[in-house]
Amino acid sequence: MLALAYKRILLKISGEALAGRQEYGLSTEVIDFVAGEVKAVHALGVQIAMVVGGGNIFRGVEGSARGMDRASADYMGMLATVINGLALQAGLEKVGVDTRVQSAIEMRAVAEPFIRRRALRHLEKGRVVIFAGGTGNPYFTTDTTAALRAMEIGADVVVKATKVDGVYTADPKTDPTATKFDELTYIEVLSRRLKVMDSTAISLCMDNRFPIVVFNLHERGRLRQLVCGERVGTLVRGG
Known about the structure:
Elements: E1 8-13, H1 15-19, H2 28-42, E2 47-52, H3 60-65, H4 70-94, E3 99-103, E4 112-113, H5 116-124, E5 128-132, H6 142-152, E6 157-162, E7 167-168, E8 180-181, E9 183-185, H7 186-192, H8 199-207, E10 212-216, H9 222-227, E11 234-237
Parallel strand pairs: 1-2, 1-6, 2-5, 3-4, 3-5, 6-10, 9-11
Antiparallel strand pairs: 7-8, 10-11
Helix pairs in contact: 2-4, 6-8, 7-8
């Protein structure tokens, strides 16, 4: 039997990633790709929960910057994450992966309310659980949601999917001298202001000594390599 480095993971995907090459909305090509990658890992027996952002539809911070009330803007962003969660559910169930969407904002006609014990039961039954609606509170990002939910369900790691293969000293797309970190401590992330996750999420993980792996989901097979223990992306943990 294949040895697994992680048996229960929390996969964080940004809303922007689901837009693909588009500036706005959902790319069915990206959703199908993500579904295939998740299915391959699910087939190994890994229990998978997911948190999805909503930036491809609406970002609360941007709405606030344009003069909108911040709390109202954040609630709109949370609703956008539910749309993305339902899209991921459709993509996963299309490839035969049983899935449940749980929302921190109750909307029982389309998603279950977030109930920790029910989420755990779904995972134990082999279902992928998608956590939508953020934390249900304004002023918190979906990065913080990912860290919080990962701890609530007893995951082994937060796996953050990005468009690059780890954390760099600068943006590798614009700075050819940027170098990649194989491993970082939480303090290094905070002091260097590296864009791993927001500071609240990093602090939460640091306080609970919870590991984070940042990797490129768009490279086929990377998620499978990660759960099987291969060095993928950048690992963030205590010093």
